Amino acid sequence: MNEASDGTRINKYFTQVGYCSRRAADKLIDQGAVKINGVVPVQGTKVMPGDVVTVNGISVTKNEENPPVYIALNKPVGIVCTTDTKREKDNIIDYIDYPTRIFPVGRLDKMSEGLILLTDDGSIVNHILRERNGHEKEYIVTLNRPFEAEFIETMATGVSILDTFTRPCRVTRMSSDQFKIVLVQGLNRQIRRMCEALGHRVIRLKRIRIMTLELDTAPGKWRTLTDKEVSRLRGN
């Protein structure tokens, strides 16, 4: 039986229509903001052909007229990567002020800066964020004090945080208190936690690359991606 006739899980439906990511959809469902044919669903409920899905009373359907939007933003410090415009005044959506609905792909914490993608295409989100795909993200990190060679070696080998060991990664010294790191993992506040576990504090964290896409805009500025860049992100 194909998915169309068997239904689509509600969180996946939101990514397919380009409304938000699965994680954001799960939050909306938990908050009771989502209804299917007027009924509040539970996690895992399937949307069947012909069903009417709403968020806070507003219908959620796919916009077939406009092509997908892909934006690369150089996020400044102080902006929060959330679509919750009501509870977070410094949210990334109001900051971008794009005329149609978009959402961030993954996140950078409030005090971090650099490259982040925003889109209305839910299909590309899971491809980029899925950890098993091993997609690289590169950062420049400045610490509160100089570090020894042992710090680099330990960071690259693996650090115990969040009841697990981080995966091996590439770490390169840039100066006495600054280094580059390339991750294929996305644990919560991973770099900050790794450094704290080794007795250092991050005072500046900047993402400069996501997969093949490099940061090339001024702080606070954004641009749309080219078709070639989107194709590369998709692995085509």
Could you give a short description of this structure?
With 236 residues, the chain is α+β, with helices and mostly antiparallel strands. The chain has eight helices and 16 strands.
Question: Can you lay out the helices and strands and say which pair or pack?
Answer:
Elements: H1 3-6, E1 8-9, H2 10-16, H3 22-30, E2 34-36, E3 46-47, E4 53-55, E5 58-59, E6 70-75, H4 92-96, E7 103-105, E8 113-119, H5 122-129, E9 137-143, H6 149-157, E10 160-161, E11 164-165, E12 170-175, E13 178-183, H7 190-197, E14 202-210, E15 213-214, E16 222-224, H8 227-233
Parallel strand pairs: 8-14
Antiparallel strand pairs: 1-3, 2-4, 4-5, 6-8, 6-16, 7-8, 9-13, 9-14, 10-11, 12-13, 14-15
Helix pairs in contact: 2-3
Q: Would you give an account of this structure?
A:
The chain is an alpha+beta fold and 236 residues long. The protein has three domains: 3-59, RNA-binding S4 domain (Structural Genomics Hypothetical 15.5 Kd Protein In mrcA-pckA Intergenic Region, Chain A), CATH 3.10.290.10; 70-124 and 216-229, Pseudouridine synthase (2-Layer Sandwich), CATH 3.30.2350; 136-210, Alpha-L RNA-binding motif (Alpha-Beta Plaits, 2-Layer Sandwich). The chain has eight helices and 16 strands. The strands form four sheets. Strands 6, 7, 8, 9, 12, 13, 14, 15 and 16 form a nine-stranded mixed sheet that branches. It has a three-stranded antiparallel sheet with strand order 2-4-5, with no helix packed on it. Helix 2 (10-16) packs across helix 3 (22-30).
Helix content: 10-25%
The strand count comes to: 16
Enter the CATH topology name of the largest domain. Answer: Alpha-Beta Plaits
Main pleated-sheet profile: 9 strands, mixed
Strand content: 25-35%
